[in-house]
Structure formats: C-alpha cells, structure tokens
Write a structure and sequence with these properties.
Length: 314
C-alpha cells in the first residue's frame, strides 16, 4: 500500500441544503481532511452541482459521490457533468455509481429496473470510454449512443456493492468498490474474494475496497448500542441488506432485533483515542480505504466538526 493513512481515510458527509453544504466542505478542508464522500437520494439536491460550487471555494479537498444512482441520469449527461467539474477542479472528483433500489427507480422515475447489475455494467461501458477517451459508440440492451466530447476527464469510477455478484462486477469493471453497513469479516471473507475474482476474470489488477465505518462519540457501550441500533434499523428492513447480513453470519432473529452483536460488528465508538486506534486497526487489514461517517449522539454539528478534526489530524 503506497498511500498514506491520511489518503486512506475519508469523511462521509451527510447531504444538506446546498449553500450550507458548500460552507461545510470549506470548513472540512480547513481542518485538514483530504477527501470526502457524499450521497444523494433521488429527492435531494443534485450533488454534482453542489460539489462543483464547493470546488470553487476550496483548493485541494477531493470529493466523491457515494453514490449517484445510475437510473437517475443518462451516462452521457453524467459524463458532461463530471467533465465540467474536472475542467474546473482537475483531479479532485471521484464518481461512485450504483444501481440503487429498483423501488426508487420505479417510484421516482417510473423505470422498471429488473436487471440492475446488467444495467450498471452497460452504464459503465458507456461512461468510462466517454470520460477517459472522449468518445463512445454503443448499442446495447439498455443504452444506445454515438457521441464525442471535446476533452477527456480521467476520473476514477467506483461502484457501490453489497452482495458477491456486485463485488465481482466491480472487480471486472470499476476502479473500486464502495460498501455500506457491511461487517468487516464479511468484507474480508466474502466481498474481497469476490472483488478479486472479478478482477482475475477480467485480467486486471484488483481495484480498491472502500469500507463505510459509522462512528459514535461516546465511551458508554449502552449508549453506543442504543444510538447505533436506531440508525441501523432501517437497513435490517431492506431485503438486500438482510441477505447480506445472513451471508455475514447473522440469524434472522438477530437481524430482526438489530442485536448487540450486529451493531458491534458495524460500529466504532469511544473518544478520539479509541476511535483513532480502531480505524488504524481496520487499515491494517486488507481494506484499502475507509469512509467514516458520524452517527450523532447529541449535538450533530459539534460532533461532525469533532470527527472532521480527528480525520484531518492524520
């Protein structure tokens, strides 16, 4: 691993009102954070527009999307957005793209997403050459396009992954796999081998594995478990996450109850020293990078700044 610890730990930022988010990212850069990841649901402000505005107010902070829903924008349009960002702030954007939920695709856009991974494969077959080579000609099951762009933008393209099939696909076609709410043993013993298998199948180097790590600032175990359980309960109701948790070795009863064992497999809690030690332990595994997100206990704004400072000190 040639990257420094600082380069391997990013901050997961919650979506906010656009002007507030720009100011938040300005402050995050000031405390020394090297890069951030931020998501965006179909009903939230366009994240690339806001990140572009933030790039004009910052000088070095790298910004990643985790994730952009592939169904929500055509890959040609995404390429135009991303290349515009790159022209204004070269080398500071990473695109994390995912199939997201077929339910969201149907509800928000009226799109039947019956083969999300097949669609994502084809999406990347259009997006990568368009960004990296400046042109693409493609006629497939889902997408058809023939277009050239005036410039190239060699932006890293990562992919959200949860199950082994998605990790294998990321190994084949992406520059990295981004996980969310996955227990570390599952990442090391199920996700990583699938990622490596996909890379081997494609005859390429295994891309990086980026693990999402939720953090709670409390030294009290019971408080951490209570706060963590509240935040994680929604994931235990989603079929794809339930399948992943079963594959990770949890019983349906544990998943239904959001058991202590499940919460502790996902959560890092404590003061700065303890959290720092645990994050370093994770970086001594085969996980390449971490994106660290806050689960607030009391004062969300103060705790978010506290976490940014902790990460920025590396």
């Amino acid at each position: 691993m040639n990257q420094s610890v600082r380069e391997r730990i990013g901050l997961s930022v919650q979506p906010q009102e656009p002007a507030k988010l720009v100011e938040t990212l300005v402050e995050i850069e000031k405390v020394g954070v090297s890069h951030i990841w931020i998501g965006g649901a179909p009903w939230e402000p366009d994240i690339l527009t806001v990140l572009t505005a933030a790039a004009m107010r910052t000088t070095r902070l790298k910004m990643g999307t985790a994730i952009i829903q592939a169904f929500a924008r055509h890959p040609v349009f995404l390429a135009l957005q991303a290349s515009s960002f790159h022209a204004l702030a070269p080398g500071r954007l990473q695109l994390g793209i995912g199939a997201s939920s077929p339910l969201y695709a149907k509800r928000a856009y009226g799109i039947e997403m019956d083969a999300p991974l097949a669609y994502l494969r084809e999406y990347m077959q259009v997006l990568r050459p368009l960004l990296h080579e400046g042109a693409v000609r493609h006629q497939g099951r889902f997408l058809t396009t023939d277009i050239e762009l005036p410039t190239t933008a060699p932006i890293p393209l990562l992919m959200a992954a949860l199950g082994p099939k998605a990790f294998r696909l990321a190994g084949e076609i992406a520059d990295g796999a981004i996980s969310a709410m996955c227990p570390v043993p599952y990442l090391l013993h199920t996700a990583l081998p699938a990622l490596q298998e996909g890379a081997t199948r494609a005859g390429r180097k295994c891309p990086r594995l980026v693990a999402h790590v939720p953090v709670v600032f409390t030294e009290d175990r019971e408080t951490a478990l209570q706060i963590g359980r509240q935040a994680m309960r929604i994931y235990t109701t989603r079929p794809n996450y339930r399948t992943m948790f079963v594959a990770a070795g949890f019983s349906l009863a544990e998943i239904e109850a959001v058991s202590e064992r499940l919460v502790e497999s996902l959560l890092v809690y404590g003061d700065e020293r303890r959290i720092r030690e645990r994050l370093l332990e994770l970086l001594h595994t085969e996980i390449d990078e971490l994106t660290v997100g806050l689960i607030p206990v009391a004062d969300a704004a103060q705790e978010a700044l506290r976490l940014a400072r902790l990460i920025g000190e590396w």
